[in-house]
Model the fold of this input.
Amino acid sequence: MNELLEDPDALDPADLDPAVAGQLPRTFRLSDRVKLVRNVLPPLIVLVVGAVEFLISLLPAGQELWAHLLFYGLVGPAVTYFSVEWIAEGTRARERAERELRDLYGQLRASHAQLGAVQALMRDLTDAADMGAVLDVAARGAVRVTGATHATLTVPGGLSGSARGATLLSAPSAALFPLRVSIPGGGALALHFDSPPTPDTESLAQALAAEVARGVEAVRQRTLDLMTLYSVDQSIRAERNMRRLLSRVTRTMADRVGAEARAVFLTDQDSVLRLEYAQDRQGEARGGGVAPPFALRVAQADGPLITTADDAGEVFPDARSVLGIPMRDDEGLVGVLMLGDARPNAFDDARVSLLALMAGQATLAVRNARAYLYSEELAISDERARIAREIHDGVAQSLAFAALKLDVVARQLHNDPAKAESEVRAATTLLREQIREVRRSIFALRPIDLERYGLLETVRRYVLDFGEQNGLRATLDISGDVHLSPGDEAVVFRILQESLNNVAKHARAQEVRVTLHGGSRVTLRVQDDGAGFDPGQVTGRVSSAGGLGLLQMRERVEARGGLYRVLSSPGHGTLVEAEMPQA
Done:
């Protein structure tokens, strides 16, 4: 277009807008007119002058002068005038075309600037982190695109954003011209102008409102996705029971897409997919069943699959559409997660990428739950082995020794009654001691419900029961504010339990004092007046009651950022102290 303005001879009606070209003469090119006048007019003048002079020569004498004056005084100037006017008309047409082109160029430049501003607004809306940022970006973009002096954007929920353009007014005044546009989905965009808005401005404002609606909906979707992922993450952290875990995770996923049925098939120890959890309109289904063919196809696929018709009915009886997502991690296939719905093509518009991410979290949850169950099985197995060892090395041998004494009593009963009576007393003492030992073991193994009573009440109950069970004076002193995380509470209570068990088993104490103080840190002290011991000689030994030695207790406390120490010496009792950071 600049070339057209710089080169007037390049103007041609065929190169112009039809509305502009229609207003111009067909012989528009000025250069053609000048060329025509330059090439045709001189020979034509020569011919005309020659012809006129010949005709004048034929006139009678005396009329030649008037004929020359008439021709050269009137016809010559008239020809010159019309020739120049003909060229001037082309010049004026060219000037009109130039003005039309300049106006068109200005309109195109303004339209291009508006388009660039709209594209920048769309990009900024996409990059906005939250709803507040979307509203601020949209308000500033509306001012920039439309040229308004003020813009205010409101959405449902009481949120709003505002911006102002090149104006000194902090708020719209009555002298401004308002324009209010509704936003699809709720809310409004209010604009104020110095002059009445044109229809084009109104159309532009409508287009901006549609873009703002898309940006707001995108932020809502992102927020909902984050809330869903957070819910799934909380389910992973809070639940160790496999069925409850799968129920929570799949319910969150089903609610996200409006699915009516859900199921999870997990691989067993033989790598066979079996039903672990399922629920539809009829309720929960019994697990253990073999996976249907569609689940096997999903297990072999690289990503989610969607099926309808017969395959959907094999997974859920009333389903006409099923989405299957493989559950994999670095170790291989963990299982397959299924969502079903009675509507055909129910999952065509589903956010499959989000569901796949949630399935990945469920995979991690299943691995963690299985590891937890396996660790529980190992702990139970170790505890059973320890109890069996204790019974074999302690109670069983003592009972066997008592049985031997009673056999001796049976043989001495008639020959030496006094000796037999003494042996009976010794066996009775031994049996009573073993009964107390069995009671101590049962008390140490009794489950404690920290979640139900809380740490302080559980400690109070345990210390009171411990004194009664073992015939000791047990005192408890609690002071300050104690705020620990659930995991730290379990560690503190386990340290108390192990320390008191060691007192009952080894200390031969008459009194034990327990102190729990909450300050900048929570401090637990267990002190007895028993026989004491040399900590250097027994640090790695496993206790007989709880299964934790001093080294294991130290590792548990230090793993949570705490401190653990034992002060003792033979004949001077023992002090166990543990410190944990406040929550």
About this structure: Confidence is low (pLDDT under 50) at residues 1-28, 540-548.
